[in-house]
Amino acid sequence: MVLDRIQKENDIQKLNEDELETLRSEIRDFLIEHIAKTGGHLASNLGAIELTMALHLSFDLTKDKLIWDVGHQSYTHKILTGRKERFDTLRQFGGISGFPKTSESSTDCFNTGHSSTSISAGLGFAAAREITGKNYYVVSVIGDGALTGGMALEALNNASVLKDNFIIVLNDNNMSISENVGGLNQYLSKFRTSDTYMGFKDEISASLKKIPVVGEKVVKSIKTAKSGIKQLFVPGMFFEDMGIMYLGPVDGSDIREMRRLFTEAKRVKGPVLVHVLTHKGEGYTPAERHPARFHGTDAFDIATGLPLKKRTKAYYTDVFSTVMRKQGERNPNLVAITAAMTDGTGLKRFQNMFPKRFFDVGIAEEHAVTLAAGFAKAGLKPVFAVYSSFLQRAYDQILHDVCAQNLPVVFAIDHAGLVGRDGATHQGIFDLSYLCTIPNLTVMAPKNKWELSDMLKYAIAAEEPVAVRYPKGEACDLWQEQRAPILKGKAEVLAEGKRVALFAIGSMVETAWQVKESLEQEGICPTVVNARFAAPFDRECIQGLAADHDLIVVMEENVKSGGLGEHVAAMIAESALSVSVFCVAVKDDFVEHGSVEELRRMLGIDAQTVSRQIMEKLERL
């Protein structure tokens, strides 16, 4: 296999044209075979194979800086830089990351995972190169979906003042996770479909080449000088009007032509954008037909593309989807907002049924929150569905535009807590900490699927901002009969006991129940409380527990700093209550990838570890 000859960066540059053709096929087969076993980001990687090869052929990865936006399309890059043999560990506990990781390889020069960051980071490298006098190329790869993010546009504006070479590669596949939307997407579509322009340019080139002696020289001169033909036939020229030279568009499967444009880009003094047209899922029919489903996939059957693991339970996202559909029928003022995550957040059914009340703003979380504030101020009921780790980007807008005005916006926060294999950039373990700092914001988390339904209905009916956080994956289906009404700031007692009170929120309520069963085998019968609310939490309940228990154990799938446990401990200290407090929470650190079960054990928040720690603490009381 040609692929076996790729042991480190730049090895690809030793191959001839025929070997490169073989290599691209081998990489495609390799990715499909391995991701079918481990799961991962398939569609984006299949679409970027040839682009990655062209980049590795055109630049010296021992010194040049290649920065991937988001980075879920960097698998081919990992293969070409000596990590092929570790691909069986992709996204596994202790294995290689699904995103660029500086700790894995010096060719991963910047950690990424969230969208719209690569141009800013690349600009930092390029400006630093000028200051330090070093000699290397800087290449930032960014998708057309990521380019809708405000941060990317801010970086483009700033890049225009750069005097030295800086290469931006626009990987344009007409997708982010869901299909792209908005004016910038429509603008780029003109490039994708501009046969008039492309045909006219080809005709002019062919005609000029027929001129005896000087024809070829004239064509070459026009290409070098970037003739005004493009300005005439592609009005606006968004990038060049910003001071960024534009090259392309080029077919993302044509390695030779991409290499030619990269060579041309190297000669530019200042910022230059190379527009590459790629196709998500290319070479694997199921991923081509369903790119959103194969954006991030679990293990699957290669022949059919169907998941190997059958879903036996409803997911929390499914519950949210059903509630939104039903509430949309009952409430004509209900509007739904997503930031390029229609399918991921479960809003597809709402979009299909109420298209005029559905808004996909692209990768623009800050805008989404303030848009929701505008809707609320105008009398509508907005629900912003978003992953926990992505909502972090809009902290100021939540605080200033929504909560300072006490506007009734609902934040439906999916993927809260540990999300597993996507790793540090995607773990939703900070939301309780940053949300509970904000006045006027009610913060809730359900113990099971029925409570999520009730909490969403409560939030939609509320006349104030409400955040409901819930985990990724299968919804808990315990305690169906225990469905007490949702009252603001009031917890729910699931089991009465003595000595130990387990005060748990969200996904940790199920863990608390497992701890209860474990402690009962040791002769201890604890009280189990479903906190329900992180802000405001049930202070009366805590006072009652303190009066007849020796130990209150606060359990949350959130970092300890600023979390529910710290707030409860502070309240107990301020009230001078004579009870010990034990906070079970995620350590104050970034958590790498692995299954949720493996990560819980590593962090010591699984039922077995918590039970043992409680027994140890009781012995010391």
Report on the biggest sheet.
7 strands, mixed
Shape: elongated
Overall average residue pLDDT? 91
Global Rg: 27 Å
Main structural class:
alpha/beta
Number of E-state strands: 17
**Uncertain stretches:** 192-200, 224-236
Q: In which range does the helix fraction lie?
A: 40-55%
Biggest sheet strand order reads 7-6-8-9-11-10-15
The number of distinct helices, counting runs of at least 4 residues, comes to: 25
Residues in β-strands, percent: 5-15%
Distance between the termini: 65 Å
Please tell me about this protein's structure.
The protein is about 40% helix and about 15% strand. It is of the alpha/beta class and about 625 residues long. The strands form 3 sheets. Strands 7-6-8-9-11-10-15 form a 7-stranded mixed β-sheet, with helices on both faces. The chain has a 5-stranded parallel β-sheet with strand order 1-2-3-5-4, sandwiched between helices. Strands 12-14-13-16-17 form a 5-stranded mixed β-sheet, with helices on both faces. Strand 2 (about 140-145), helix 6 and strand 3 form a beta-alpha-beta unit.
Q: Quick gist of this model?
A:
The protein is an alpha/beta fold. It is built from 25 helices and 17 strands.
Structural descriptors:
621 residues; alpha/beta; seven-stranded mixed beta sheet; five-stranded parallel beta sheet; 17 strands
List the helices and strands and how they pair.
Layout: H1 17-38, H2 43-47, H3 49-58, E1 65-68, H4 75-83, H5 118-132, E2 138-143, H6 150-159, E3 166-172, H7 183-193, H8 195-209, H9 215-225, H10 229-233, H11 238-241, E4 245-251, H12 255-266, E5 271-277, H13 285-289, H14 316-330, E6 334-338, H15 348-353, E7 358-360, H16 365-377, E8 381-387, H17 388-391, H18 395-403, E9 410-414, H19 431-435, E10 442-444, H20 449-461, E11 466-469, E12 492-495, E13 499-504, H21 508-520, E14 527-530, E15 533-535, H22 539-548, E16 549-559, H23 564-574, E17 580-586, H24 596-603, H25 607-620
Parallel strand pairs: 1-2, 2-3, 3-5, 4-5, 6-7, 6-8, 8-9, 9-11, 10-11, 13-14, 13-16, 16-17
Antiparallel strand pairs: 10-15, 12-14
Helix pairs in contact: 3-12, 5-6, 8-9, 14-20, 16-18, 21-25
